[in-house]
Amino acid sequence: MTQQLLMIEDDTRLAAMVGEYLRQSGYGFSHAADGASGLAALQASPPDLVILDLMLPDMDGLEVCRRIKALGNETAHTAVLMLTAKGDPMDRIVGLEIGADDYLPKPFEPRELLARIRAVLRRGGESSTAASAGGQKVMRFGSLEIDRDARTVSVMGKPCELTSYQFDLLVALAERAGRVLSRDQIMEAVRGRELEAFDRSIDVHMGRIRSAIELDAKDPKRILTVRGVGYVFAKQQD
After folding, report:
1. Measured between alpha carbons, how far is residue 44 from residues 37, 75, 179 in Å?
2. How does DSSP classify residue 177?
3. According to the model, what pLDDT value does residue 133 have?
């Protein structure tokens, strides 16, 4: 099912540009030009995520965020990504404290917005691709344990050292266990953007992840290479 995004933003030109980009990226998109109409749209058809500008003509964006989180039923769980005009740290702190899931200062690159949207939805368990992992916050594959909330990985109880990006790569693979993924698909899932097919940096990161989680990185059993295609994360592991 296509994930639905609602943008509450009074800059109609910006909203049109963002909407076109997000639709091309596979999302449903709707727009409201002020807080009141945004709240009405949200209650009529709750989206998966709201892109919320803090500077609205009729009410403060923080108040809109409060009302979103105060609503009952499905709307109370709608993710919120705030847009801040100046990246004011106080706005960010207050926004996160009242329930916003992330923030992005203006001006921003559409690719970064897309990456943050995907990260928020993934953390919230909204992505249907997490079904193979049972939607659990802690994923276990044999002696390998991945804790998405704590952002830790261990094998037989021993912590594995991974960078934040490598952790995200591992989670992207684990959520799709058993599926063969191209390098482009893996990196797009993490970075939120498509890359050229000849970009080989993924191979370097996979080598380092294997060194951390495999008993023998030269004979991997968890992350397997499919020659000419990409990688597959093994469903059954020791």
Report:
1. 10, 10, 36
2. T
3. 44
pLDDT tens for each residue of 80-89: 998 987 656 6
Q: How many CB atoms lie within 10 A of CB 224?
A: 12
What does the alpha-carbon distance between residue 176 and residue 232 come to, in Å, rounded to a whole number? 8
CA distance 157 to 23: 43
Q: Which two tokens stand for residue 44?
A: 């009529």
Query: For the chain, what percentages of helix, strand and coil (3-state, to nearest 5) are there?
Result: 40, 20, 35
CATH (one of 3.40.50.2300, 3.90.25.10, 3.40.50.1970, 3.30.360.10) for 4-123: 3.40.50.2300
pLDDT of residue 72: 62
Query: In which region does residue 185 sit, left (phi positive, over 0), alpha (psi from -120 to 50) or beta (all else)?
Result: alpha
Asked if 50 and 40 count as a contact pair (C-beta separation under 8 A), the reply is: no
Q: Which residues, given as ranges, of the chain have pLDDT below 70?
A: 72-77, 86-93, 95-97, 123-136, 191-200
Q: What is the pLDDT of residues 99-124, one digit of tens each?
A: 787 888 888 999 999 998 998 887 66
Architecture category of domain 131-233 in CATH:
Orthogonal Bundle (1.10)
